[in-house]
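Please fill in the sequence for the structure shown.

STRUCTURE ENCODING:
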């Protein structure tokens, strides 16, 4: 599913958080919103999700205008740093959670839910932890389970907000390679927020560099490195 953001503006009081954002996120690619703290990345992601509404502008999913569509109807998977697993549910029940919430006519049978949970645990390479509880897992393992949970409902769009933000540098590096591999295997359109240029360059098919509520440049890692559009992009990517 391709995503088009057309002329999106957002203010909080007299502060402009997003200033005329126009971008297209291509089908099946992993696109990163990259920029310093406060530049509007999370606000834009929340507007794409339907967790927040723009003051003006449009959001299109495959040419369909979803600007006023509520989050539950956008078929999105979320993996957010602070969107923790349920402590009192075991891992299998955490992964199955989204499926158990589906309306009765769309909800798979118990056997099918179990089968899907097992497939997802295989996919994130943690088949052995189905009966464990979140506190028994490492931070990196918990984030892998968070991805399995996000994928359970077969979303058409995956949104990741600083998914590895709380992890130490070594695990972060391992997980970004892992995420890139899984993304290539599944080919699901994904948008990730990060302030870490090294992380963005390691995982992204395309990078959207943001600054003070505006888009400075959109391109592949190579394009940004070889042809930074301006001094901000060059500085932010440490190219000087
Ligand atoms: N609900 C809100 N009310 C008021 N101001 C807000 C609100 N949400 C965000 N802001 C402000 O809008 C700006 C952009 O915030 P946003 O969270 O989108 O930035 P960000 O680029 O994701 O930064 P970070 O990496 O620090 O999360 C910030 O200055 C923030 O304080």
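FILLED IN BY: designer on duty
SEQUENCE:
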């Amino acid at each position: 599913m391709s995503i088009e953001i057309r002329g999106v503006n957002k203010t909080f009081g007299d502060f402009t958080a997003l200033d005329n954002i126009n971008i297209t996120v291509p089908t099946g690619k992993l696109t990163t919103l990259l920029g310093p703290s406060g530049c509007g990345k999370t606000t834009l992601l929340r507007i794409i999700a339907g967790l927040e509404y723009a003051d003006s502008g449009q959001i299109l999913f495959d040419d369909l205008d979803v600007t006023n569509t509520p989050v539950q109807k956008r078929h999105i998977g979320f993996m957010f740093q602070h969107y923790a697993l349920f402590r009192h549910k075991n891992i299998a029940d955490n992964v199955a959670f989204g499926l158990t919430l589906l309306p009765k006519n769309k909800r798979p049978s118990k056997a099918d839910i179990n089968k899907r949970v097992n497939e997802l645990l295989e996919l994130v390479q943690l088949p052995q932890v189905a009966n464990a509880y979140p506190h028994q897992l490492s931070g990196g393992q918990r984030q892998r389970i968070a991805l399995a949970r996000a994928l359970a409902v077969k979303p058409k769009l995956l949104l990741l907000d600083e998914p590895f933000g709380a992890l130490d540098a070594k695990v972060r590096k391992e997980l970004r390679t892992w995420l890139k591999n899984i993304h290539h295997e599944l080919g699901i359109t994904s948008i990730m927020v990060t302030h870490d240029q090294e992380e963005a360059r390691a995982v992204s098919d395309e990078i959207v560099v943001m600054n003070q509520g505006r888009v400075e440049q959109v391109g592949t890692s190579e394009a940004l490195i070889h042809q930074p559009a301006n001094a901000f992009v060059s500085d932010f990517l440490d190219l000087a």
